[in-house]
Specification:
Length: about 400
C-alpha cells in the first residue's frame, strides 16, 4: 500500500476528532440564532461566550477584546483597513515588512492606491526585521505598524515584544499577523504591547473559514462588515456557532499541549533539517534558532521545486514549494527573494511543515525519498554537473 505523508501543516491542518465532536451538535441540534430570545438560542450565546474566553486566555487578552471573523485574511484586512479608516485624521503612513502574508501585503497595496503611503521594510538573510530600520522609517504621519509574528514560509519568529515596546513608546498602533504562531509559541498581548492580533482556526486543528481579531480595549477601529449588531456591533453577520465552538476547543487543546508538542516537533524538525542538509547542494532558509517548531525550508541547487514537489506527490508526500502560480506564470516567493535568494534558488526551494500526526518514521522516509529524487532529477542536468565538479 502506498504511504500518504502530509507535511504541509502551515497550509492547513486537519480538524482534530475531539474538535469535530464538539462542533457536531451545533449543526443539527443547537441551531438557534444566538441573537434570538428563546431558550434554544441562549445555549448558543453561552457557547460563544465560553469559546471567546478560551481564545482570550490563550493570548492573555480579556474576553471582550476578541472578535470572531471568517479567518486570517479577514482579520488582517479588518485590522489594517479598520485602523487606517478610523485614524486617517492622524496620518496616512503604514509600516510593514516585505515578508508578510499576501493578506497583509495586498491590503497595503490596495491602500496605496487610495492615497496611503506604505513602507515595506527589508529583512536580514534569516528573515528578521531590524528594529533600527523600523524606528528610522517612522514619521509624524505613521499610524500603524504591521509585522507578522512568525513567517509562514521560512518559519522565522520576529522580535515581536521589542517591536511592541517601540510602537508603544512612539504612540503608534501595532498589529501582528499571528496566524502561524497561535497554538505553536507562547503569546502574551499585554506583555508584548500588541494592539491588534490576527489568528485563523484552521492553522491549529480547528475548522476552516473561522478566525478572530484581538483588538485591545480603547483602540479606535472602523468595521469592515456592516450590518447587524453581532460582535458588539463591530462585525455583522449571524455567528458561525459550530466554527466558534470548534475554534475554542482547538485553542484549548493547543495551549494545553504546547510545551510537549513544541519539544516533540522541534526534535523532528531538526532531524529533518539534518537529514536534508546531507544532500549535496542543499541549504537551509530562515533562522536556525528563532524558528517555528514545525517549519523546514530548504533550497536544492539546480532543482525545479515544482518538479521535485510533483515527484514527491507521486510517492505520496505532500509538501509546498518556494514559488506560487500567479497569473499563469510560476513566480518565486517574495519571502525567499527578500532574504536574498536568487529567482532560481527561490524556485528550487521546498517547504516541509510537520504537525500533530508526524512521526520519526515519516521523517526518515521523507529524507530518503527526497535524497533519491533530487539525485535522479539532477542526473542529466549540465549546470549541476559543473557545480559538482
Ligand atoms: C494562512 C495564513 C493567513 C490566511 O489565513 P486564512 O484563514 O487562510 O484566510 C494569513 N497569514 C498567515 C501568516 C497565514 O499563514
Amino acid at each position: 500500500m502506498k504511504r500518504e505523508i502530509y507535511m504541509d501543516y502551515a497550509a492547513t491542518t486537519f480538524v482534530k476528532p475531539e474538535v469535530a465532536a464538539e462542533m457536531r451538535p451545533y449543526f443539527t441540534e443547537y441551531f438557534g440564532n444566538p441573537s434570538s430570545i428563546y431558550h434554544i438560542s441562549r445555549k448558543n450565546k453561552m457557547a460563544i461566550t465560553e469559546a471567546r474566553g478560551k481564545i482570550a486566555d490563550a493570548i492573555n487578552a480579556n474576553r471582550d477584546e476578541i472578535f470572531f471573523t471568517n479567518g486570517g485574511s479577514e482579520s488582517d484586512n479588518w485590522a489594517i483597513k479598520g485602523i487606517v479608516s478610523a485614524n486617517s485624521g492622524k496620518g496616512n503612513h503604514i509600516i510593514t515588512t516585505g515578508i508578510e502574508h499576501h493578506a497583509v501585503i495586498n491590503t497595503c497595496k490596495y491602500l496605496e492606491k487610495h492615497g496611503f503611503k506604505v513602507t515595506f521594510l527589508p529583512v536580514n538573510e534569516y528573515g528578521i526585521v531590524n528594529l533600527g530600520e523600523i524606528e528610522k522609517s517612522i514619521t509624524d504621519n505613521t499610524i500603524l505598524i504591521s509585522a507578522m509574528f512568525a513567517n509562514n514560509e521560512i518559519g522565522t519568529i520576529e522580535p515581536i515584544k521589542e517591536i511592541g515596546s517601540l510602537c508603544r513608546k512612539k504612540g503608534i498602533l501595532f498589529h501582528t499577523d499571528a496566524v502561524q504562531a497561535v497554538g505553536n509559541v507562547p503569546i502574551d498581548v499585554k506583555a508584548m504591547n500588541i494592539d491588534l492580533l490576527s489568528m485563523a482556526s484552521h492553522k491549529f486543528y480547528g475548522p476552516k473559514g473561522m478566525g478572530a481579531l484581538y483588538i485591545r480595549k480603547g483602540v479606535k477601529i472602523d468595521s469592515l462588515i456592516h450590518g447587524g449588531a453581532q460582535e458588539r456591533g463591530r462585525r455583522a453577520g449571524t455567528e458561525n456557532i459550530a466554527g466558534i465552538v470548534g475554534m475554542g476547543k482547538a485553542i484549548e487543546i493547543a495551549v494545553k499541549n504546547m510545551d510537549s508538542e513544541s519539544n516533540r516537533l522541534s526534535y523532528l524538525r531538526d532531524k529533518l533539517i539534518e537529514g536534508l542538509l546531507k544532500i549535496p547542494g542543499s541549504k537551509l532558509n530562515g533562522d536556525k534558532n528563532n524558528r517555528l517548531p514545525g517549519n523546514v525550508n530548504i533550497t536544492f541547487d539546480s532543482i525545479e521545486g515544482e518538479i521535485l514537489a510533483m515527484a514527491l506527490d507521486g510517492a505520496g508526500i505532500c509538501v509546498s514549494t518556494g514559488s506560487a502560480c500567479s497569473a499563469g506564470a510560476i513566480e518565486p516567493s517574495h519571502v525567499l527573494t527578500a532574504i536574498g535568494l536568487s529567482r532560481d534558488a527561490a524556485k528550487g526551494s521546498l517547504r516541509l511543515t510537520i504537525g500533530a500526526n508526524t512521526t520519526e518514521d515519516e521523517v526518515n522516509f521523507v529524507v530518503n525519498e527526497i535524497g533519491n529524487t533530487v539525485l535522479k532529477l539532477r542526473e542529466n542536468n549540465k549546470k549541476w554537473q559543473q557545480i559538482k565538479d
